[in-house]
Design goal:
The chain is of the alpha+beta class. The chain contains 4 helices and 10 strands. InterPro entries: UPF0047_YjbQ-like, YjbQ-like_sf.
């Protein structure tokens, strides 16, 4: 039996092909030629940050680099364990982009006593924070290539804090690949 798989790496825009042979008499031959997938997981705690969008790529990489370096090819999944903050990938150079994004979010999601929200148990910024969190989301998936997160030159991981009272935020990072 002949099995064929193709993988494309964005760092080198060429197809890489791998051919694996198995036979009915040797059920372990494929396992000998294909590395077993690896898994790693770590919870990264980010310190309390003021309201706004913050570039956190370096803090996350600092915590996961030893495990990340063990992966040739795979995926990094980041999951934020909170409902009043969010994760996104965006501009990593000009902080004006983060400020403008915060301005945009505050303009489209009204806040305060005149806002139409029913959920105000934790203050007037709570429901707007939940809406903003749902807009950007709480999870990211990033390709891993040669022990590095394979993001574009100007891309960075942002934590968007949507509350006025800063709190530490936990991000569960799960790495999977070979």
């Amino acid at each position: 039996m002949l099995m064929q798989s193709s993988v494309i790496f964005s760092s080198k825009p060429a197809w890489v092909k791998a051919v694996h042979r198995t036979s009915s008499t040797d059920s372990n031959s494929m396992a000998a030629t294909v590395p077993a997938p690896k898994w790693a997981q770590k919870t990264v705690t980010l310190p309390p940050l003021r309201r706004g969008c913050h570039l956190v790529t370096s803090q996350i990489l600092k915590e996961i680099r030893p495990d990340l370096s063990e992966f040739k090819c795979g995926l990094a999944h980041l999951f934020l364990q909170h409902t009043s903050a969010s994760l996104t990938i965006n501009e990593n150079y000009d902080s004006d982009v983060r400020d403008d994004t915060e301005t945009f979010l505050n303009k489209i999601v009204p806040e305060g006593r005149s806002a139409p929200w029913k959920h105000t148990l934790e203050g007037p910024d709570d429901m707007p924070a939940h809406i903003k969190s749902s807009m950007f989301g709480c999870a990211l998936t990033i390709p891993i290539t040669d022990g590095r997160l394979n993001m574009g030159t100007w891309q960075g991981i942002w934590l968007c804090e949507h509350r006025d009272a800063p709190t530490a935020r936990r991000v569960v990072v799960t790495l999977n690949g070979i």
